[in-house]
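Handout for the seminar on molecular recognition.
Each group receives one record of this type.
Step one: identify the two inputs.
Step two: read the structure output and locate the region that could contact nickel (II) ion.
Step three: write two sentences on what you found, then compare them with the reference statements printed after the record.
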Amino acid sequence: MRRARIDPAFTTPYIAKTMAIREIIKIPDKRLRLKSEPVQKIDAGIKKLVDDMFETMYAAPGIGLAAIQLGVAKRVVTMDLSKKEEDHKPQVFINPEIIWASEERAKYEEGCLSIPEYYEEVERPAEVKVKYLDLDGKSHEIKAKGLLATCLQHEIDHTNGVLFIDYLSKLKRDRVVKKFTKAAKESAMKKEEA
Ligand code: NI
């Protein structure tokens, strides 16, 4: 997920040598519609994926990322909702699952790194309970509200092939998909010409 208003504090990524910025796939890439597979074993490959997800997310800049946005269909989510770079608070959610959602709903203006520069208000449950594993394979349950609740729902949707534009009217959704489809075709043509 992306913050609606870009905070300059997010624009400087923090970098470790082993990390790599990977390409974030954009709509209409069909992979974004895949249902991701649960992680069976948290091995070196998963840890490397998480490192790369953080690096890519901070560089974007974004506040949340799902592995499928890097083309990896695994149920892994990274997030950092901290406001300032000095108090970065990276959070990892392996196999996250919503186990409860409030009746009360809240609206938040959402954006997505796979749908750049597009923001719309989305209404979702105001509070959720999420079960997940940490990088050590330990199981946790958290109750979230506010931005954390919204971001968790947005990212867990990604692991199920759902995008925030799915909650908009058909008219709005068709318009944005059409725009990105056209842009993808144009960039493919440019690549061919080069
Ligand atoms: Ni997103």
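Reference statements: The mean pLDDT is 92. Residues 8-193 form a domain with the Peptide Deformylase fold (CATH 3.90.45.10).
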